[in-house]
Amino acid sequence: MQERFTGLFTQQEPIPEDGIEAAIAVLRHGRLHRYNTAEGEVAEAALLEEEFAALTGAKYCLAVASGGYALGCALRAVGIAAGEPVLTNAFTLAPVPGAIASVGGQPVFVEVTEDLTLDFDDLAAKAKATGARLLMLSHMRGHLCDMEALVALCADLGVTIIEDCAHTMGASWNGVPSGRHGLIGCYSMQTYKHVNAGEGGFLISDDAEVMARAVLLSGSYMLYGKHRAAPPPEAFEAVRMVTPNVSGRMDNLRAAILRPQLRVLGERVARWEVLYRTLEAGLADTNGLRLVPRPDAETFVGSSFQFLLPDFSPARIASFLARSVARGVEVKWFGADDPVAFTSRYDHWRYAAPQSLPQTDRILAGLFDLRLPLTFTPDDAAQIARILRAEVLAVGQGPEPEAVALPKVQ
Ligand SMILES: *Cc1c(COP(=O)(O)O)cnc(C)c1O
Description:
Blueprint: H1 17-29, H2 44-56, E1 60-64, H3 67-77, E2 85-89, H4 95-102, E3 106-110, H5 120-130, E4 134-138, H6 147-157, E5 160-164, E6 172-173, E7 176-177, E8 184-188, E9 201-205, H7 208-217, H8 234-237, H9 252-263, H10 265-283, E10 290-291, E11 298-299, E12 304-308, H11 314-326, E13 332-333, H12 358-364, E14 367-371, H13 378-396
Parallel strand pairs: 2-3, 2-4, 4-5, 5-8
Antiparallel strand pairs: 1-9, 6-7, 6-11, 8-9, 10-12, 12-14, 13-14
Helix pairs in contact: 1-9, 2-9, 3-4, 3-7, 5-6, 10-13, 11-13
Bound molecules: pyridoxal-5'-phosphate (PLP).
């Protein structure tokens, strides 16, 4: 009998008990809106921002309704103009180009490298060709590029970096937290990310003017004085009457659920690394399979796992996916012609101008992806590796398999 994995790739851990208690306290008093506070009370949302600023070392932090909202808000806060080009990764997920399009920007996709990070040569070429002054850098699936080199390159190019840290909350590069290299760092607290409030987002920055605009944009009315991780009142003077309200606030219920999770983020990152390294060790030296190198400078969050089967034909890929999924391993593929659940590709985002990215096409055609929820144990990770390894070896040999339909996974 072949072994079959029975864990659920979409099942996260429960909310910690202290988060549940804090949420119930908010429900009991009923003051869910962040500016609805009793005499002398500090809102959960304001405390959450203060704690995330401390965790990342940022001067300012704003909590908002979603990660996608944070990205759009960041672009507005830096004054994006209608039709302005915005450089971004070709290998990312739909909320990133979506945020650019939502504020009237034009996504300009930059090629991905074999290591799943931004291609610096293509970045420089496209910055020069388009005159773009903004880069929305997606640390897609937690792979950080050489951040010092990128900061230097963007300074040369006159390009401002906004970081999409949806997959790197808790990660760092040479000890600097992800989100602290660019002008603004944006995060997501959606269920599949590293802390879970269902939905939610953060912006962090050291720039007072940009963050004053972000606070006003998020829908602070004239109550920004109630924030604790916002710039001082003077920073709002010049912008308070000219910044539109685009409501997207964080509420006290979700903030209450999140605060205890920030306290265990470091411990989660350590547990994720064990799962990731177990899977990586189990797949090492598998003929035909390429692992993604992890640079020493990077502290990563192993909440997902990627590998490449660069030489597999479409028929072998379909067979590998079908056989793995049949054995309970929900492996996803970035090469599909149509978007599947959360997984889509730059050429599916047809609101952006059509662009040709041959290097990205080649890499995504052989790129596979797994979620690693913390409900999995190291034994689970070892079993997943055994199944994948066996299927890569079985499908990679012999004559071309018959064409099969792609399995549907979330
Ligand atoms: C999840 C995600 C976001 C933010 O998405 P929301 O669902 O709006 O919180 C941004 N970028 C990437 C790469 C993501 O995966």
